[in-house]
Amino acid sequence: MDVGFIGLGHMGAPIARNLLKAGHHLIVYNRTRSKVEPLAREGAQIADLVADACRGEILITMLADDPAVEDVVFGDRGALSALRRDAIHISMSTISVGLSDHLTEAHGKAGQGYIAAPVFGRPEAAAAAKLFIIAAGADLMLSRCHQLFDEIGQETFVISNRPSEANLVKLSGNFLIAAVLESLGEAFALVRKSGIDPHRYLNILTGTLFSAPVYRTYGPIIADAQQPTDGFKMSLGLKDMRLALAAADALAVPMPVASLVRDHFIEGVAQGESDADWSGLARLAARRAGL
Amino acid sequence: MDVGFIGLGHMGAPIARNLLKAGHHLIVYNRTRSKVEPLAREGAQIADLVADACRGEILITMLADDPAVEDVVFGDRGALSALRRDAIHISMSTISVGLSDHLTEAHGKAGQGYIAAPVFGRPEAAAAAKLFIIAAGADLMLSRCHQLFDEIGQETFVISNRPSEANLVKLSGNFLIAAVLESLGEAFALVRKSGIDPHRYLNILTGTLFSAPVYRTYGPIIADAQQPTDGFKMSLGLKDMRLALAAADALAVPMPVASLVRDHFIEGVAQGESDADWSGLARLAARRAGL
Amino acid sequence: MDVGFIGLGHMGAPIARNLLKAGHHLIVYNRTRSKVEPLAREGAQIADLVADACRGEILITMLADDPAVEDVVFGDRGALSALRRDAIHISMSTISVGLSDHLTEAHGKAGQGYIAAPVFGRPEAAAAAKLFIIAAGADLMLSRCHQLFDEIGQETFVISNRPSEANLVKLSGNFLIAAVLESLGEAFALVRKSGIDPHRYLNILTGTLFSAPVYRTYGPIIADAQQPTDGFKMSLGLKDMRLALAAADALAVPMPVASLVRDHFIEGVAQGESDADWSGLARLAARRAGL
Amino acid sequence: MDVGFIGLGHMGAPIARNLLKAGHHLIVYNRTRSKVEPLAREGAQIADLVADACRGEILITMLADDPAVEDVVFGDRGALSALRRDAIHISMSTISVGLSDHLTEAHGKAGQGYIAAPVFGRPEAAAAAKLFIIAAGADLMLSRCHQLFDEIGQETFVISNRPSEANLVKLSGNFLIAAVLESLGEAFALVRKSGIDPHRYLNILTGTLFSAPVYRTYGPIIADAQQPTDGFKMSLGLKDMRLALAAADALAVPMPVASLVRDHFIEGVAQGESDADWSGLARLAARRAGL
Fold first, then answer.
1. Active centre residues of B (catalytic)
2. Mutation site for C-interface testing, chosen from A240, A241, A249, A261 by largest number of C Cβ within 10 Å
3. Over the stretch B93-129, which tens digit does the pLDDT of each residue have?
4. Strand order in B88-91's β-sheet?
5. Which residues, listed in sequence order, are joined to residue C2 by a DSSP beta bridge?
6. Contact call for residues D95 and D169 (beta carbons, < 8 A)
7. What is the pTM of this model?
8. Chain C residues with beta carbon closer than 8 angstroms to that of A244
């Protein structure tokens, strides 16, 4: 297929690469142009403008936040005006429920399709085509995208025909991860201050009730007090808690743990750790305990 | 071996049964006598007094809380006076770090051994000899107990030679479970109020990053808003948060999620749900959201 | 002076009435027209359109929230286009820091003045011209408004020449009131459940360290479990916590008590109490305690 | 009257001095003997043992915490055995509800009176005989103490005939003060980071809704980021939140703001600020915001 791809960051680049490998014709656009060059060497065509990436049947966007998506879609010569009727915009970014509803309506009016397809998985998973894809949108649109999803992920979960529900699931999933990071942080601070070996402790957790990827991935980072450099940033964790809480506020759902985690991300940002991996929540918990 | 066993509740009874099956001579004591009768029919000897269960090489206690253990050990004609020198008291109850330190000292002075060996696992796991055992104590004592542990559990994790560290690990583990219950409760309230099918949502969680027993066990209970009758009670969840926070206070470790969960257990108790399963945290979260 | 006045709710109507009494020529506009009629009988002129209220030297707006202000100012034939150069818009609404900054810029570009002047005080205080006015804006503009402020309030506090700082002070003040409501709610639940007479307790508080209007006003409401019908609504309390937290997020300031209070307002709204007085926070605290 | 006085710290010494001035015969005891010497020079008799201070009609204790009181009362040759029948023990310390109930029972069995009479006020207020006294106990006992209370305080509030209710009121009052310190800390962090002058801000608070001693006393300390050296210590604030939460737990009352404040006191202690004034809560809030 002819696929436009906008947003070649930590996650976008490996996803785009897998689509290239699968044989699609890819036109890629990134605001910082240097990021598209490696892909160009592997066969992608470079778009000079957003609109140039919107000529095909499919447009995939994988961008940092709501403003970036708004800019690409609603901006002057943006995707909304450039996409043809019947083209599908697959938005893989973690954006707000409100913006996703807005995109559904705007693309619908323009006769275009819109699928929300945020993903779970870190850059390594993206590179290995092992992402989990959370998809929502009209059935007909989804059926046109399934092949693509299979090429970049290990499994696709379809939520419903309302795109923003995929975004809500993604945001709530990031909340659950952050809740794990926070509570592990507190538990490790306790255990460490008591003099118990943190690796022995982690081994118990992952060997018993907590044998899931989220504990296996972040447990060793926290036990070693590592600071991964290629992870998911605190500032993005904060953004996602903000969006989860905004969605919860709109539905009148109190989420006290989400509020607490949000406050701790703000604390991290206030102390200059915006760019640190979001597992830094555990480092903050340790610091509060005087460790 | 000659094994005394005190405390034949939901957890104690199946553990004792497995020791009987393994061929040990068991003398069992329970304050409410009716609970020992089924075991007597399977071959256990009934003790009329605590002291009568303290004649053998090993005494196992599996009791509800600190006062129950204090009563059995320090009470008139209690275990401390009744156990012979070199006997070992294996305390499987989830008790405070402080009491465990106190027991270490008291048994030590009396020339007796003391092992803390709290467990992870619900009554079904106890019945299937699939418990996880968290053990701490002097090496020599532990080596005398390993065979017993293998007969009742699937794996034994040794922490250190300070018994109370096993209790701290157990308490922190219960905190981590409660934190999962609370955050799942908030996430399901959000997702449900948005109109997303809760089973589809759960399927995503356990199919991706959250594929651990704690999510697999409690997820369906929460998705179905079940109220299991044989579970771990809110009042016991509250007790354990109290003990975890007391240990954290003694070590000067702030644990805000533990504080929040404790407040929610108190709310449950205040609303007459002391005896409900501790996954009731999720029901409280739903109720707060007006569900 | 020729004064336009938009927004004749619980607070706006008595303020406008005091300006009429002071001898100003008032042109009043309200979306729900019935609310302007009592004022018309007292001498105010009725504006059919927003623009008709923007002909004078001064425009005062006292509206419910950001969208209402945006609509009046930026809407088609709104204040921004209708006000003459050198006219001053005095915004008394409790709005966001972001919108206030936006208004500063927009009015400035149009050669118009902009003053933020939110107030502390309930409708009775507005009627008695006893409001406290928190004002910020350019000195020259402020000096043109001082006379008006004296006619409606008991004291005017000037913050700085940046209008949005008055809004931040107002939001932080509402946060402090809500924090008092929440903590009084918790304290009264405790004291009441212990069997202590709540009025005797309140008498101690207001007779010792807590002898301030905020305790004297809300204490009796909470001690009697009253539900005032003309108060400040939970839904508005929620809105203000949302705005305070948004301002705090923008400045990277964690405010955990504000987060907690916000969650409790959401709980109130979820349980159908949007329109209840915000002292309902205390009723929620009592309910959580099973009272 | 013949009055024994045990505990001559920051609060006890000025109270004892006022009783001396009022003409009572005072026998004083303090564990650290050097603290009684200034009082001896002013006419007090020094007791070498606790029992020596228990010969009179009245015993007043003003001690740091539960263990100190338990030691003095229940210790070998302690007050319980040394006081004569009909003597009254006035406990002014801020102790737990549980211990106060225990003292009521123990003194009652010994035919002695027991009054709980904790106070509000800092050392300056104690020196000026301006304390607020919160008293509870049997009417007959209270009537025998009123004269004494008038000599050391500006007002006595009688709660009920159950002594521990005075302790609960005192603990809940300290909770309300700590809640003010915490919320002021958050508000000042916000305002300060926005660039608003903190004194101008404080002036608004105390000039409007927050014109109470608690804001007037602590507001300037927080606005100036002072660190008073003779204040009420963080470690004592933590102790009181612990006791308030224990009382609330026993009555099944969730107090989330108290939990939050407790966590912040623990954070202060973990960071070496045990001995800092409890207004240090505001400094922690500022630090979290990167100030």
1. 170
2. A249
3. 999 999 999 999 999 999 999 999 999 998 999 999 9
4. B45-46, B25-29, B2-6, B58-61, B88-91, B113-116
5. C25
6. no
7. 0.96
8. none
Structure tokens at C149: 């402020």
CB–CB of A113/A86 below 8 Å? yes
Q: What count of other Cβ atoms lies within 10 Å of the Cβ of residue D70?
A: 16
Contact C289 D252 (CB under 8 A): yes
Neighbours of B77 (CB within 10 A): 12
Enzyme catalytic residues of C: 170
* All residues at 6 or more sequence positions from A91 whose CB lies less than 8 Å from its CB, including other chains: A61, A69, A100, A103, A114, A115, A116, A117, A118, A163
Q: Do C215 and D212 touch (CB under 8 A)?
A: yes
- Give me the count of residues in chain D: 291
Q: Is 80 exceeded by the pLDDT of residue B169?
A: yes
Mutation test of the interface with chain A: which of B97, B190, B200, choosing the one with the most A Cβ atoms within 10 A?
B190
Task: Say yes or no for a CB contact (<8 Å) between B191 and A168.
Answer: yes
Euclidean distance between CA atoms B158 and D275, whole angstroms: 39
Q: Quote the CA–CA distance of B199 and B130 in Å, as a whole number.
A: 28
Reported as a single tens digit per residue, the pLDDT across A255-265 is 999 999 999 99
Q: Please give the span between the terminal C-alpha atoms of chain D, in angstroms, as a whole number.
A: 54
Q: How far is A80 from chain B (nearest CA, A)?
A: 27
- Classify residue A147 as exposed, middle or buried by CB count within 10 Å of its CB (0-12, 13-18, 19+): exposed
Per the CB < 8 A criterion, the answer to whether D272 and A290 are in contact is yes
State whether D160 and C209 contact (CB < 8 Å): no
Q: What is the pLDDT of residues B154-168, one digit of tens each?
A: 999 999 999 999 999
Between the CA atoms of D9, D12, D18 and D19, what dihedral angle is there, to the nearest 10 degrees?
A: -130
- Treating both helix axes as pointing N-terminal to C-terminal, what angle do B256-270 and B163-193 enclose, rounded to 10 degrees? 70
Active site residues of A: 170
Cα angle, residue C193 at apex, residues C192 and C198 outer, rounded to 5°? 5
C-beta atoms of D272 and A290 within 8 A: yes
Is there a contact between C259 and A263 if contact means CB atoms under 8 Å apart? yes
**Facing B271 at nearest CB: one of C271, C272, C290:** C290
Bridging pattern class, strands A88-91 and A58-61: parallel
Please determine, for residue A291, whether its predicted confidence score (pLDDT) is greater than 90.
yes
The C-alpha of A250 sits at a distance from chain D's nearest C-alpha, in angstroms, of: 24
The answer to whether the CB atoms of D266 and B254 lie below 8 A apart is yes
Among chain B residues, the shortest Cα distance to C263 is held by: B288
**Counts of helices then strands in chain B (DSSP H, E):** 13, 9
- A288 to chain D: which residues are within 8 Å by CB? 267, 270-271
Is B240 in contact with B184 (CB distance < 8 Å)? no
Query: β-pairing, C131-135 with C119-120?
Result: antiparallel
Which pair of structure tokens corresponds to residue A175? 């909340």
Confidence of residue A48 (pLDDT cuts 50, 70, 90): very high
Q: Under a CB-based contact definition with an 8 Å cutoff, are residues A92 and A61 in contact?
A: yes
Distance in angstroms (rounded) separating the CA atoms of residues A114 and A134: 14
Nearest to D197 by CA among C135, C159, C164: C159
Kindly indicate the confidence band of residue A231, based on its pLDDT and cuts at 50, 70 and 90: confident
Question: Could you give the domains of chain A?
Answer: 2-161 (3.40.50.720), 167-288 (1.10.1040.10)
**Chain D CB contacts of C248 below 8 Å:** 190
Q: How far is D240 from chain B (nearest CA, A)?
A: 13
- Report the percentage of chain B scoring pLDDT > 70: 100
Which residues fall within 8 angstroms of residue C34, CB to CB, at 6 or more apart? none
For the stretch D237-268, pLDDT in tens is 999 999 999 999 999 999 999 999 999 999 99
Let me know how long chain C is.
Answer: 291
- What average pLDDT does this structure show over B72-82? 96
Chain D contact set for C179 (CB, 8 A): 179-180, 183, 257
Phi then psi for B273, rounded to 5 degrees? -110, 30
